[in-house]
Amino acid sequence: MATARIVTKIPGPKSARLLARKASALPAGVYHNVPVFIQSAENAVLEDIDGNRFIDFASGIGTINVGHAAGPVVQAVQEQVQRFTHTCFHVTMYEDYIALAEKLNQIVPGDFDKKTYFVNSGAEAVENAVKIARFATGRSAVLAYEQSFHGRTLLGLTLTGKVKPIKKGFGPLASEVYHLPFPDCRDCAGGPTGLCCQAEETALRRLLMTRVDPEQIAAIIFEPVLGEGGVRPFPDEYLRMLFKFARENGILMIADEIQTGWGRTGSLFAMEHYGLAADLTVTAKSLAGGLPLSAVTGRAEIMDRVAPGGIGSTYGGNPLACAAALAAISTIESCKLAERAREIGAVVAKYLEPLAANYPFIGDYRIRGAMIGIDLVRDKNSYAPAPELFGSIQRQCYENGLIILKAGLFGNVIRFLPPLTIEFDVLEEGLKIFAQALENAAAAHG
Ligand SMILES: Cc1ncc(COP(=O)(O)O)c(C=O)c1O
Predict the structure, then answer these.
(1) Where are the domains of the chain?
(2) 277 alpha carbon – ligand 1 mean position (Å)
(3) Whether the CB of 151 sits within 6 Å of ligand 1
(4) Which atom of ligand 1 is nearest to the CA of 292?
């Protein structure tokens, strides 16, 4: 029996009424992808208030790696909520915060002593990592990448490598942030020849000659695989060059594993694929199985520099979130979800290969475990982005019971981030809905 079930037009009448209330109660900037309101969720399925059931290839943007309403997470939160909900760790403490920090110190990449503390959101963790890097090095500048995404706080959006709609109109931006071109083999001056890393290394050298002295750089922040930027992994060779450059110049590396962490790319953290360990790692999203929590983990000697009171947050490491995170991590490990991400990627690859060969508007696609990006292009020769196709494909998908995400600088990348616990028959059902949406798009666009 099918899992997806559509019983009304989308949005259904109840969702349509709430959409009208949203429009009058919320600012326009609070965006949504799919015009439905959810009533319940289980593993990889969302049910809306009109009784429509959707297969979820979004996971709350990569936040539900352990599945919606995962039993161990729900149980841990229920037990904790009956004991106490909040004390503020900076006033009176509780063991789960310590146990969770110990766990991250043990599993975050890096064969060195680590320390961890908790804040609330991805952007807040990014801000904190930069603060620590600046304090520890006594330097102020930060390098980041074009096409990256690091959040919507003022420093987060300054670091982010995309103007519209993230930065536009929110200036003045934070100072001392410099962007490098993302080393994309397809886009770079070297062309898709394998020489791209050399071309991008030249861009780095040029930045150091024209804009910022390496001795002024505190840190380089990067996502091992761009998430919002369209599921683009850093080339291995380039990242190796970058780490060497950072080491030689006393610059700290900050890995933003907010979207790539917790099994998503087929290893617990994406940096494991490179065999490199950043000095500071920020995690969030699937860390706490859907509860708001983020972490900064780093070399103990760096993390210890800031004096008491210099870092912290009222809600950071909230007891409910810590209990949820301990349960979520234990589920990721015991259910071998990183391995499962690779299996999901293999199933998706099997479906995508013939689709990409069949449709001229599918360009490249990238599969890193269960993190999948599919480029929509005008044609395979020009490779010009075709963001106009995304809306109709997405609508076809949700009108037939599948939720997908958009990504990419040009908004032309279809992104899948399904829960890593998705049943394989449900995954295949979702992929069939997707294939049908592509067929309809091909018919509509000729
Ligand atoms: C790589 C990355 N960094 C930072 C963030 C910001 O996280 P948050 O929205 O929790 O502030 C995101 C969110 O999508 C992200 O994907």
Answers:
(1) 13-66+337-445, 71-334
(2) 20
(3) yes
(4) 10
Token reading at 253: 């590396």
CB-ligand 1 contact for 257 (6 Å cutoff): no
Between β-strands 402-403 and 413-416, what pairing exists: parallel, antiparallel or unpaired?
Answer: unpaired
Q: Are strands 371-376 and 413-416 parallel, antiparallel or unpaired?
A: antiparallel
Backbone angles phi, psi at 397, to 5 degrees: -65, -55
pLDDT in tens, 320-366: 999 999 999 999 999 999 999 999 999 999 999 999 999 999 999 99
Walk across the sheet containing 53-56 and list its strands: 38-42, 45-48, 53-56, 402-403
Of 358, 299, 323, 325, nearest in space to 136 by CA = 299
Specify whether domain 13-66+337-445 bears CATH 3.40.50.1860. no
Q: Which fold has domain 71-334?
A: Aspartate Aminotransferase; domain 2 (3.40.640)
In this prediction, residue 196 carries a pLDDT of 61
The residue written with tokens 């110190």 in the block is: 105
Pocket mutation for ligand 1, best pick of 30, 147, 149, 417 (most atoms within 8 Å of C-beta): 149
20 Cβ contact list (under 8 Å, min separation 6):
none
